[in-house]
Design a protein that fits this description.
Blueprint lengths: L5 H12 L31 E5 L2 E4 H17 L7 H24 L6 H14 L4 H10 L4 H22 L7 H12 L7 E11 L6 H19 L4 H8 L10 E6 L5 H7 L11 E2 L3 E12 L6 E12 L7 H16 L5 H8 L10 E5 L6 H8 L10 E3 L2 E14 L2 H31 L2 E3 L5
Antiparallel strand pairs: 1-2, 1-11, 3-4, 3-6, 5-6, 7-8, 7-10, 9-10
Length: 452
């Protein structure tokens, strides 16, 4: 079976080659949906032809290899597994589409030379702190031969070059289209697309509290409000004084549509500007202070983003180091750091198995979306200066410290470029669907019976 280690390696290499590269382990990978790796032959069913594509066969071993990769990817993303037979049919249709496109690329004279494939291998190895020779040994240990691996890389690069040639002209976006999109989005009044991020400080009131207790708790909430209006930082006060479970994140509840907030929160903040704080809001849970962190239209790029600077120590499970052992080792590092017996940066330099080790594990400033979801959600819960419990991600086990946060305004040019990218992606997606359907309709495809 394809290992958890090899899949991110291949994704990183293609990312670098195709302009989608991530700069550190834990960053969001844009894995091509057409990429597959072979699995050991011993895991497959008896081989036979499942489809003919212009007289070229697709075998059951190819289908099972790609199906296992799809199932593993769904499992890693913690997504529900669909009906296997339906998934197999979807995977087969994608293999048919890829085969047709590879045939078209061959007829069109598109070639990928060995130097490009060599570069892909080098990028994989470099992103994972391995030499090419070491990476090849790992591939073989995972049941993937080097020729198979290089063939998959070559085919993916061929497909990418073909699609760029065929579709790139259809993805051009004019300034007029950007202007029109912005006008329509700015005039949109649909509350379902209006996003708001609130932060709260909660002074909890027990269900059986007496009038005297309620009055005392209200006085405490009013005192907190007075401190905020005197200039004290809302988020720091939320971390130290709020009774809500979200206090470790400065009380932030997250960017969401109004209908996903309690109506009394919406009513209390709908007339407030960004950065303003409400008066006391009484709910069944207690007294709330609410701050409007940001407002945004879901159809528009954000006017500002919150960036986080963090650092980590990454240990990759291996036959010599189990996931549980990696977690225990990181817990020991955390205890040393909290006791003042060791510096995080020095431990990262000595032990982290990530390219950021030389910088003491520093990942730099990251905007939303740069990290894989499990990594980003975890750091969003940490306060600056806080070292979290070990986190298991698709890359290994991390010990993470958030160093600082900042709000960064996006320029008008950046917002327009974000809209251009959004419109371009939409055009290319639509163009690809029509183009792929057209290729399919022109081809001779004979489907055989799938294995039960």
């Amino acid at each position: 079976m394809m290992s958890r280690f090899i899949a991110p390696c291949l994704a990183l290499a293609l990312g670098v080659l195709l302009g989608l590269g991530a700069q550190a382990q834990g960053l969001q990978l844009q894995l091509s949906q057409n990429l597959s790796l072979p699995v050991p032959v011993g895991t497959l069913q008896a081989d036979f032809v499942v489809a003919l594509v212009n007289s070229e066969p697709i075998t059951n071993s190819e289908l099972q290899s790609e199906l296992q990769r799809a199932l593993q990817q769904l499992s890693q993303q913690r997504r529900p597994l669909p009906d296997k037979n339906e998934l197999a049919r979807q995977v087969l249709e994608r293999l048919i589409g890829d085969r047709l496109q590879l045939q078209l690329a061959n007829q069109s004279g598109i070639r990928i030379d060995d130097a490009a494939v060599d570069l892909a291998e080098q990028n994989i190895a470099r992103q994972n702190q391995l030499s090419v020779a070491e990476m090849r040994l790992q591939l073989v240990a995972d049941g993937v031969s080097v020729p198979q691996f290089r063939l998959q890389l070559r085919n993916q690069l061929i497909l990418t070059r073909l699609r760029e040639r065929e579709l790139e002209p259809r993805g051009r976006v004019t300034e007029l289209e950007i202007d029109q999109y912005l006008r329509e989005a700015q005039s949109n009044s649909d509350p379902a697309t209006r996003l708001i991020n609130l932060a709260q400080i909660l002074v909890a009131v027990p269900d059986d509290a007496s009038d005297v207790q309620v009055a005392a708790l209200q006085a405490r909430a009013e005192a907190l409000l007075a401190r905020i209006r005197a200039g004290e930082d809302f988020n720091n006060l939320a971390r130290s004084a709020s009774d809500a479970p979200d206090r470790s994140n400065g009380g932030q509840l997250g960017l969401r549509t109004s209908d996903r907030y309690p109506s009394l929160f919406v009513d209390a903040t709908q007339s407030l500007a960004v950065g303003a704080v409400s008066t006391l809001v009484r709910s069944g849970a207690g007294f709330h202070l609410l701050k409007v962190m940001e407002r945004q239209d879901a159809n528009l790029p954000p006017a500002a983003v919150t960036q986080t600077r963090s650092r980590h120590i990454l240990l990759r499970p291996s036959p010599q180091l189990s996931e549980a052992a990696a977690r225990d080792r990181l817990l020991a590092y955390r205890a040393q750091i909290q006791a003042g017996q060791a510096e995080f940066a020095e431990l990262a330099r000595q032990h982290s198995q990530d390219g950021s080790a030389a910088q003491g594990g520093d990942l730099g400033w990251a905007s939303p979306g740069m990290f894989v979801p499990e990594f980003e959600q975890f750091i969003n819960r940490l306060a600056p200066g806080q070292v979290g419990e070990p986190l298991v991600s698709r890359f290994g086990v991390h010990l993470i410290e958030v160093l600082e946060r900042r709000r960064v305004e996006t320029s008008q040019r950046e917002q327009r470029e974000a809209v251009r990218g959004l419109l371009r992606d939409k055009k290319l997606e639509e163009a690809y669907l029509f183009w792929a359907q057209d290729q399919r309709s022109r081809a001779y495809v004979e489907l055989r019976e799938l294995a039960p």
